[in-house]
Structures are given as C-alpha cells and as structure tokens.
Design a protein that fits this description.
Glutathione S-transferase Yfyf (Class Pi), Chain A, domain 2, alpha/beta, about 50% helix, binds iron/sulfur cluster, five-stranded mixed β-sheet
C-alpha cells in the first residue's frame, strides 16, 4: 500500500508500522480468515480495511477516533498474518499503533473506568483473586450493572480452585537434561493453578529442572494489546531483570503470555533494554514446543480410547507458529485420538480482555467454536491457553455439552500419573 507516513514523527516503531503498511498489496487473501470480517461483513472490519485505516491516521488524514471502533473490534488473533502471502507484520503494526493511538484518543468515562479496572486487577493474582471472590457475591445483581461489568462477572467461574504455591526450584527426575525458568502467569494462577503444577511435574518427568523466579510479574501482554504501552514496557523491563540468564529457556504455558514475551523487543524499541529484550524473547518457548525439541518421553498409554479435540490458541498457532508440537506430544500418548476442528484457524473470541470489551462478537465466536468442538464427537478438549480454556468451557456449558477441557500439559500429566 503506498503511503506517506512521516516515520520520523511516529515514534520508535514508526518505521516498522510503515513497513507493514507498505507490504500490503490489497490482495484480500486475509479476508476469509478474519473472524470479525466473517461475522460483520464490513471491509473496515477486515485486516486490509484496518491497515488502510491505520495508514490514514498515521498520515494525519483521519482522526484517531474515527478509526477507533474498527481497530477496537480487532481481536489481535493474527489469523490474517498466517494467511497473508506478502508477510505483512500485522501484529507489530496493530500493537504499535494501539500504543500510539491511546495517547490521543478520547474515551468515555465508563470506558476509562473499565480499562482501569482490567489493568489494575487482572495482571495481579492477589487482587484478581480478591476481585473474583467479591464478583461472585454480586453476581445475583449482575443484570443491574453496566453490560461490560456484567460480562466480566459472568466469566468468573462458580468456584475458584485452591491456591497452589509453586516451589522456587523443582528438581529433574533422574539425570538432568536441562534447566529452565517458568513464567507462572497471572489470571492462570487464580483460575487454574493446576496448570503450573502439571507443567512442573511433566518437565521433571522429562529430566528438566525448573526454577520459578519469585519476583516475576505479569508478562504485560494485556497492557500492550490494549494500548497501555507504559505499563507493558514496565512489565517487560521488570521480567528481563528478574529472570535468570543461566537457564536454557524461559517456558510459557499460556499462549497469550508467550506471544507477549516474544514482543518485548517491539515494546522496548528505542529503549536501553531493547537488546536485552531480544535475548529474552529468543530464549522464550512454549512448553509443548520445548518438550518436543528436547526429546519428549511419552507417558504410558491411556487405559481406554479417548477422542480429544485440540483447539489451536491463536497466540500459539498464529503468533508463535506452534501447531505441530502439541499435536505430536498428544499423539504420542497411546489411545489418544486427535480430532481436528472445522475452521480451526478462527479465534474462539477470548483474546485477552476482548470478551469483556466486545461481548457480542466474543459471544458469537465462542458459540461457533463450541459448536465446532461438539461436532467432532470428542470426549475431551485440550488447548494451550487459559483464556481459550475459560471461554470454550463456558460456551460448551451454555450449549449443554459440558465436555471436560484441560490444558494440553494437564492431559500429558494425567497420562504420566495414570489417571487416564
Ligand atoms: S493478505 Fe496480506 S497483502 Fe493481502 S490484503 Fe491481507 S494483509 Fe494485505
Ligand atoms: S488480528 Fe484477527 S481480528 Fe484482527 S484483523 Fe487480523 S484476523 Fe482480523
């Protein structure tokens, strides 16, 4: 796309945004894979339309607020980046654009309040636990509350699992083959702390020692993807400082966090920590990819046959390119039969805080994903992201098909522990 973006005036990511715009040749191959284009049928709600809108704003020809509704409806799922034959770096473009636009756009009082609530709660496990507990108490009067607040309450599970404190170091079983550090995640520690416990056990089973840095914080992805650049940069700098350098890899088990860590060099463009951010991102790897690369030791077969639907989390498949490793690990477990979903590349509608900020589209996508899962006849669903897990679980229940859903690593852990 031809442009006249003044890269010298558009911040440290100006060049990258301009490159992404220039790479788009309007071919439209991305349109059929874009969930919002599929649901809304509007060019401006497609990747190509959004690239045009961002270009116009960056050139100064369109006010930020005119483009905002279309940009806000983007899930950041990056299905378009996978489909694009021209290699448009859509993720870099939209993340950088959102940070820049946030400084000048106007928001209503309730939008500001909701954003503050999300950014001051979700990234802090202690606060989130408190808020989730309190939220369950006011759920009976949710109908009286503003729509987005009611949506937030609806996403809180009926009961919270008990806390699972993690050891600072989990030794490898048998001969040590590697040493890694684990990013524990924020919301995941409150909503499904068993995922981290399973991750530690599976790594130990595979001869990997794991350190869990005590002072680690939120990865910053939630902030970055909603344009809160200052908060995202602070989170990145903090984690770069507190994670040890003498480990083989930094392991993530939440796709959204993993994709966030890979974006640290982008968030810290022009900052003194940019180089360190590059090293940090290069050492970051998803748990399934790591196990696959290190030489996975398959668990014993399940006692009975289990059809399992694997859901590709967008921030794993599209953002990190991790598709085959989780499937290979699952297929190595005897009696697991993998079921592929129709339209597997389409987002489930979770997308960080998207289901709170854009509840209607999130609802349509969640229901569509749940129906695709039900159609496979699977008796279990597995995925690599806590947000997808919660979204799919709630929609399966809404459709009266409460198929059990686990993180991929939990099913592997169960197999090692012969729980079938
Ligand atoms: S597929 Fe790529 S090049 Fe084609 S319109 Fe979409 S973003 Fe542009
Ligand atoms: S990131 Fe997802 S929702 Fe946004 S334009 Fe690309 S495909 Fe569409």
């Amino acid at each position: 796309m031809q442009h006249t973006i003044p890269t010298g005036e558009t911040g440290p990511c100006g060049e990258k945004m301009a490159e992404a715009v220039a790479a788009c040749v309007h071919c439209g191959f991305c349109l059929p894979t874009c969930p919002t284009y599929q649901q809304l049928g509007e060019e401006m709600d497609s990747p190509r339309g959004r690239i045009f809108l961002m270009k116009e704003v960056l050139e100064g020809g369109l006010p930020v607020d005119a483009a905002a509704p279309y940009i806000d409806r983007c899930l950041g799922c990056l299905s378009c980046a996978t489909a694009c034959p021209s290699g448009v770096a859509y993720g870099e473009l939209i993340t950088s654009y959102r940070t820049r636009a946030e400084n000048v756009r106007r928001r209503t009082f309730s939008q500001k309040l909701l954003r503050k609530l999300i950014l001051k709660t979700l990234p802090y496990p202690g606060r989130f636990h408190l808020a989730a507990t309190g939220g369950r108490l006011v759920r009976p009067i949710a109908r009286l509350l503003p729509r987005q607040l009611a949506t937030m309450l609806a996403l809180i599970p009926g009961s919270l699992p008990r806390k699972e404190p993690l050891p600072e170091c989990m030794p490898a079983k048998g001969k040590r083959r590697g040493r890694v550090a684990l990013l524990a995640g924020c919301a995941q520690q409150v909503l499904a702390p068993q995922i981290n416990v399973a991750t530690l056990r599976v790594l130990a089973e595979n001869g990997i020692e794991v350190v869990v840095p005590r002072d680690q914080g939120c990865c910053g992805a939630l902030a970055a993807h909603t344009g809160a650049g200052k908060e995202a940069r602070a989170a990145a700098k903090h984690n770069i400082n507190v994670f040890p350098r003498d480990v083989d890899a930094i392991i993530t088990n939440a796709a959204g966090c993993g994709s966030g860590l890979h974006e640290y060099p982008l968030w810290l463009a022009g900052e003194p920590e940019q180089e360190a951010a590059g090293h940090f991102a290069a050492r970051t790897v998803d748990i399934c990819q790591y196990l696959h690369d290190v030489g996975f030791r398959p668990p014993p077969p399940l006692t009975t046959s289990l059809p399992v639907a694997y859901h590709d989390a967008c921030h794993l498949a599209h953002a990190q390119g991790v598709r085959s490793a989780p499937r290979a690990l699952l297929e190595s477990i005897g009696n697991v039969q993998l079921c592929e979903l129709a339209d597997a590349e389409i987002c489930c509608g979770s997308a960080g805080s998207y289901s709170i900020e854009q509840p209607e589209i999130a609802l349509q996508l969640g229901e569509r994903k749940a129906r695709a899962i039900i159609a496979t006849g699977a008796q279990m669903v597995v995925t690599g992201n806590i947000g997808c897990l919660m979204q799919i679980e709630s929609h399966l229940k809404r459709l009266s098909h409460p198929i059990p859903i686990l993180h991929t690593i939990q099913l592997i852990d169960r197999a090692y522990r012969a729980e079938g």
